[in-house]
Structures are given as structure tokens and as C-alpha cells.
Amino acid sequence: MTTKFFHGLAVILLVLGCGKWQAAHAVEVTGLYQTSLPVESREDQKQRARAFTAGLQEVLVKLTGHADIVAVPDIQEALKNAQSYVEGWTYQTRPDPRTQQQRLVIDISFYQAGIQRMLDNAGIGLWPQTRTETVVWLIIQDEKDERVVADSNAGTGLLEMQALNTQAAKFGLPGRYPAWDMEDQDAMPPDLLWMQDEAALRAASSRYQYDSILAIRVIKLVTGQVVAKSLHLFRDHVQATEVLEGTLDDFLKATASMVARELSDNYAVRTVSGKGVTSSESQLLLLSVDGVHGLNDYANVLHYVQSLAGISEVHVREARADTLTFSLNAAGQVRQLVENLAIDRKLQVAGKPAADASSSHLYYRWQSQ
Q1: Torsion angles phi and psi, residue 219, rounded to 5
Q2: Could you tell me which residues come within 8 angstroms of residue 73 by beta carbon, excluding any fewer than 6 positions away?
Q3: Longest Cα pair distance anywhere in the chain, in angstroms?
Q4: What is the Cα Rg of the chain in Å?
Q5: What are the pLDDT digits (tens) for 340-354?
Q6: How far apart are CA 209 and CA 15, in angstroms?
């Protein structure tokens, strides 16, 4: 049984019917507009205001996948008035995940529409909540020079897995660990994993059909610090980050940031109203959806298309038999639209879909729920 970064999220296998990348796993990442922060008092208004600012920063990182989002001038201005984006807040007492001692926290919810408008005005793309997963191969060498793979079934590497999950959650980054059954053990010997052999990683990950592959090796020093390296393979892109002597948390935060930035840069979308989207970039295209049977399907398809990230000016152009054809504005982001449809479960490719910004007609089939 594989272990997921986030509990309670349904894993979806979708097949993109064209191009080099044939499959993708995705989850609906929840809680992107919520955060919880420790506080010392329910009555201290200055402390509450600081929590609003810190909470908004956390939410923006999850929504964009960029740790440095707060350095953008427009975002810095918005953070000065963080409370205007707060939808509500409550105080709760719950155990600290590290010490298990009770502590006071403030749970904050932010206005989705307001934050999206902020990002639009700043010309910053939004990473949709349906996100591709990353398969994570993690190996640890302890202070006695013994190496083990992170495997929840065997009870090994649990501390490092938990630390990675914590950092991944800060970016809204979903992922899962391999099953480490006989097939995985044959395909990924520890020596090759330690070497972070790219060919072996791609071959071993092929059973999971993931485009995003992360290999991590960690050497634990007697000082409590680590020497570590992460290698991220996303399709034909390869990135790495490493630390010679540092803390495990800092290294894993840098790792999660690297992966989140790569994925969000590929999938993030802007709306037509966003700053920097010119009329020449606003691209009208047609989207034909067949398999629409009856008024219930009609309403569901229309609602779904209208809710697609980065899409505006949706119009029903034609309704014939079981097919609806929409005209819509993709803000010059046809590739991102195709990418995001490929990791969602509502539509399945029914013809040869567009793979670049020059395409103007997409064909899909509605998957009735």
C-alpha cells in the first residue's frame, strides 16, 4: 500500500490521448485558502493582524507554488492590508504535532475571489487545485553508515517522510511513496537509488505512470545535520538541489520548493483580466464535448467549463445530438488548458487535442458521474 502526502484525497488516473506524456495522476488539493497558525492570545489584536499577514503569505505560496511570491511589489502592497482578504477566523486549542502539548491556534479562511483578483492584477498565474502527484524515492544513510529506503510498511525512514510531508503541504504539493513490493525492489536497487541514476528512476517509476519523479538521498551526521541531494525529473527536465551541512527541514523545504515551482510553472493559468494579458494574447477557441445526455449532463458540462481556471467568455455555440460546442477565451494559454484537462477526471480526449497555442479546436468526451 503506497503512502500519500495528504490523507483522504482520491487518486485519479487519467490518460492523455496524444503526445509523449500518456498518463498523469492527480489529486484535488483541499485547504488552499485556509491556514492555521499558533498564537499566544485570543485578545491581542496586533498579534491577530500579524497572523493574518503570515497566513496570507502561506496561502499565496500554496496557490502559486513560488516561495518568493511575497517579493513581488503588488503582493507586498496587498499584504499591508491582509485583513481585507480574510473571510473568517476562529481560535482552537489542539496538540502541537511535534510535542503533543496543547497550544492555541488561529484558523483563518481567506476570500477565494479576492485573492484570485489580487493575483490577476499582479499578472501572476494560479496553480489549479487539481494537481499532478510526484512519486518520491527516498533513501537515508544513518550515523552508522547503514542505508535504508523510506518505506512505511517496513517502518523505515518515517521521520524523514513526515518531515517531507510537512514541507510539501506548505506548497500544496501532493505526492506518494512507492509500494516497495518485489517489483519496486527489483526495479530500484538501493545502490542505483543512492546514485540517483536517471534511467533507473524513470524505469522504476514507469509502473506508476508519473511525469514527476523525485529522488532524495540523505546522510545523517552525528552533529544532527545532514548532507543531502534531491533530483527532480519532470518529463525531460532535470533539476537538483543539495546541502553539504544543514538541517533536514531546510533541505526538504528547498526540495519541495524546487518541485512546486517546476510543476506550477507548467500548470499555472492566468485569467483574461489579469495584468499583462494583451488582446493579442487573448485566444478564442472551440471546445467540443460529446457524451452529453439529457439536461442534467448539459447543466453539469456547462458549469464545469465555466469553472475552468484561466477561461473566460464561455458561450454555447452549438448543441447537436449528444455534443456541445463552446467558444471560449483561453488568454493565450491553450497548452495550460490541455495540461490541466489531462489531470482532471471530468473530460477525456475524444479526438486529437491541441498541444500548442496555434490550435483552435479541442475535442473531448464527458465522463458522466
Answers
A1: -105, 120
A2: none
A3: 70
A4: 22
A5: 777 766 778 776 554
A6: 10
